[in-house]
Amino acid sequence: MKEFELKYGCNPNQKPSRIYMDGKELPIEILNGRPGYINFLDAFNSWQLVKELKEALGMPAATSFKHVSPTSAAVGRVLSPELKKACFVDDFEDLDSSLLASAYARARGTDRMSSFGDWIALSEKCDVITAKLIQREVSDGVIAPDYEPEALAILKTKKKGNYNIVKIDPSYIPEPIERKQVYGITFEQGRNDFKIDASLLENVVTENKNIPDDAKRDLIIALITLKYTQSNSVCFAADGQAIGVGAGQQSRIHCTRLAGNKADLWHLRQHPRVLALPFLETLGRPDRDNVIDVYLSEDSDDVLADGMWQQYFSVKPEAFTKEEKRAYLAGITGVALGSDAFFPFGDNIDRAAKSGVSYIAEPGGSIRDSLVIEACNKYNIAMAFTGMRLFHH
């Protein structure tokens, strides 16, 4: 297949639309459905992300993409009982037998509100357990190097048989020069094939020089995630997964706040009070996501007020006060943070510290680097300067 005609481009009025390669076969096979323009943007960006995670860490990887940025990315690590419940996968008794499924459960479970209707990328052949997890979530499609026959059959039942399933050749290597057009003008640049691994974390510029192996893993996950996130971007990571992504903000502090707020929600979703919320059995998974999001917000009365809570719960839950949430989050440590460009001010570090950040990787190169280092020293944060910007547009 040298080209594939799309229904339309980014919007229904943008026709004609297609993907193609000049005189070459496309490195994909469409096994089911008819992916669209944005689907393929997500598919090819997300595939690069999981491919690089697998190469860098030697572990199965998965990511959940929405509008050309990841909501999360993760490697295959067994989930704790609390995290299984927070990710709505505690009913899968055989989940631990598939590290790929564990990676997907983490990626999908991190920011479930944003992942609604996502595109999925898997670094490995899709197995049955992973397919069963995908089957019950609202999703647009998946890309993987292969699919077990039973897994493919399961996925084909989604969306009344119209679920988008793409198989990609894992040996495909793109041309070193990439091009795109804007306003009829062609842009050309070398592909960003910069390799991200532990060697990037050797220039530790803070008083605290200790970055343990688990933290290096999480910093690598954050940096590779940023490489395929619309800039400006900041990523918090912990326990083998991205737990908060702030994408496409003009101000870096806004990136840090957005990502930090998402990381806080990831932690709070695992609080015993949230795990014990007495949902009505008739309440669907997306509705539970919405209710948890509101319950943890400043607008919690919208689901706890008399006449409201009865729509969601069998018993009225206790309110989760701001003071209680702050106290819980104050005990969080060991979080890793990556930034796709330097931090221009120490306020980013102040905000990061509130979300339990202990390790940071950023390019460095600001005229205010000394102030940022000083802020890290105040919180005993270990920070490495990578020397490499990771903008993505």
Mean pLDDT: 96
**Biggest sheet: strand arrangement:** 3-8-7-6-4-5
User: Percent of residues in beta strands?
Assistant: 15-25%
Q: What is the level 1 CATH name of the largest domain?
A: Alpha Beta
What does this structure look like?
The chain has 14 helices and 15 strands. It is an alpha/beta fold. It folds into three domains: 3-173, Cytidine Deaminase, domain 2, CATH 3.40.140; 178-268 and 329-385, AICAR transformylase, duplication domain (Cytidine Deaminase, domain 2, 3-Layer(aba) Sandwich); 272-319, no CATH class. A six-stranded mixed β-sheet has the order 3-8-7-6-4-5. Helix 3 (99-110) packs parallel to helix 5. The protein is globular, with a radius of gyration of 21 Å. The two termini are 28 Å apart. The model has no long low-confidence stretch (mean pLDDT 96).
Set out the fold topology.
Blueprint: E1 3-6, E2 17-20, E3 28-32, H1 37-57, E4 61-66, E5 69-75, H2 81-86, H3 99-110, H4 112-115, E6 118-122, H5 128-135, E7 139-144, H6 149-155, E8 164-168, E9 177-182, E10 185-190, H7 213-227, E11 233-238, E12 241-247, H8 252-268, H9 272-275, H10 285-295, H11 301-304, H12 322-330, E13 335-339, H13 347-354, E14 357-362, H14 369-378, E15 382-385
Helix pairs in contact: 1-7, 3-5, 5-6, 8-13
Primary descriptors:
alpha/beta; 3 domains; Cytidine Deaminase, domain 2
